[in-house]
Amino acid sequence: MNEEKPIYQRDVLEFVTVAVQYCAFLEGTEGKDRTEFLDIMSKLLPLLYLKGTLLPRYELIDEDCQLAEYVTEENYDIVRENIACIMADRDDYLDVFVEDMKYSDSPVLTTVSENLADIYQSIKNFACIYKLGVDEEMMTALSIVKEEFENEWGLKVANVMRAIHEVKYDENDLREI
Predict the structure, then answer these.
(1) Contacts of 32 (CB under 8 A, 6+ apart)
(2) What gap in Å lies between CA 157 and CA 161, rounded to an integer?
(3) CB 166 within 8 A of CB 41
(4) Of the N and C termini of the chain, which has fewer Cβ atoms inside 10 Å?
C-alpha cells in the first residue's frame, strides 16, 4: 500500500472501516430487539457522520467512469423491512428539513427504516468498490461518496439521529431492567 495515495489516507481508511461496520450491522438486524438496535445505531451513526466529514474532497479523474451498483432493490428492501420490523410503531417521524416543506404547511412524514436503508445503499456501494482494490475506481468511489455525504446521506444521518435519540430515551418506552 502506498501511503501517498489519497485512497489510502488514514481518514479514508477509517471511514471505510466504519462504513463496513454499519453495513454489516444492518445486514444482520433480522431478529434484533429495538433496545439493542437503537443502542448500536446511536453509536454508529455519529461515528459515520464524523468520518464522512473528514473525507477529503477530490475531483473525479474520469467523469465518464460508470461504477457498478452492488446494492440491488431486493437487498435494499430486506434491510429496510428488517429495520421497519424492529422500529415497528416508532419507525415514522416528522422531518422538517426536506425540500417539500417549502411548499407545505405541515411537516413531512418519513421513516427511520427508509433513511437508514438509503444511507446503507450509498455506503455499501462504496465499500464494495473499495474491496475490489482497483485504484481508479476507488478514487472515483471516494469522490462520489463524499459528494453524496454532502448532498444526501449526511443530511439523512443528522435527521435520523434525532429520531433514534427520541425513541431510545423516551421515558414512556423505557423498560424496567
Answers:
(1) 86
(2) 6
(3) no
(4) C
pLDDT tens digits, one per residue of 50-76: 999 999 988 776 666 778 899 999 999
Residue 98's identity, in one-letter code, is V
- In this prediction the pTM is 0.89
Cα angle 74, 80, 82; round to 5: 100
Give the CA dihedral 10, 157, 116, 111, nearest 10 degrees: 180
Contacts of 92 (CB under 8 A, 6+ apart): 109, 110, 111
Positive/negative CA dihedral, 99, 117, 128, 26 = positive
Residues recorded for the chain: 177
Amino acid at 155: L
